[in-house]
């Protein structure tokens, strides 16, 4: 049974005009949970999903670090094994990297969508000597439509409300757990 000292947590909250980032850390184990929250005005849940889905043609448009994505295995219609390759940076000082991720996509009864992912080892994807194998920490995207009142409040706050516009908005939450293995 862990003692009370092992359960000490520290947290921070950073707020910018576009998003909120929370960080919760255990002081003893150095495990950290990060949470990013943002509202995307004028965008439906399906629009956001099309932009972030790994197999979408829209992903390379906004993700400048992405070199390639390939589906390694399709375990079911909503469960994929995907290989992401990230470009090298800083004139090659930071090497090209890849991750092999198990991704599960789901739609909830309220219309919200979730994507859960983590790194795995897959026999069809051995390590490539010139590429660093990176690790995707257990992560989850939660994508949910916000109410019209929430959208009006966000737009009023930004002083760009146009009453003639049809208001659609989507809230994105992204969480991941960074763990550190304890050496005993």
What order do the helices and strands come in, and which of them pair?
Layout (H helix, E strand, L loop, with lengths): L8 E7 L3 E8 L5 E10 L3 H8 L6 H4 L3 E11 L2 E8 L10 E11 L5 E7 L12 E2 L5 E7 L2 H10 L11 E10 L6
Parallel strand pairs: 6-8
Antiparallel strand pairs: 1-2, 2-3, 3-10, 4-5, 5-6, 6-7, 7-9, 9-10
Question: Which descriptors apply to this entry?
Answer:
12% helix, Alpha-D-Glucose-1,6-Bisphosphate, Chain A, domain 4, START domain-containing protein, 184 residues, mainly beta, disordered N terminus, single chain, disordered C terminus, 10-stranded mixed sheet, lipid-binding
Shape: globular
| Structural class designation | mainly beta
Helix content: 10-25%
Strand content: 35-45%
The largest sheet is: 10 strands, mixed
What's the alpha carbon Rg, rounded to whole Å?
19 Å
Rounded mean pLDDT is: 73
Give the low-confidence spans.
1-7, 149-167, 180-184
Classified by CATH, the class is Alpha Beta
State the gist of this model.
Strands 1, 2, 3, 4, 5, 6, 7, 8, 9 and 10 form a ten-stranded mixed β-sheet that branches. It is built from three helices and ten strands.
Explain this structure:
With 184 residues, the protein is mainly beta. It has three helices and ten strands. The protein has one domain: START domain (Alpha-D-Glucose-1,6-Bisphosphate, Chain A, domain 4, 2-Layer Sandwich). Strands 1, 2, 3, 4, 5, 6, 7, 8, 9 and 10 form a ten-stranded mixed β-sheet that branches.
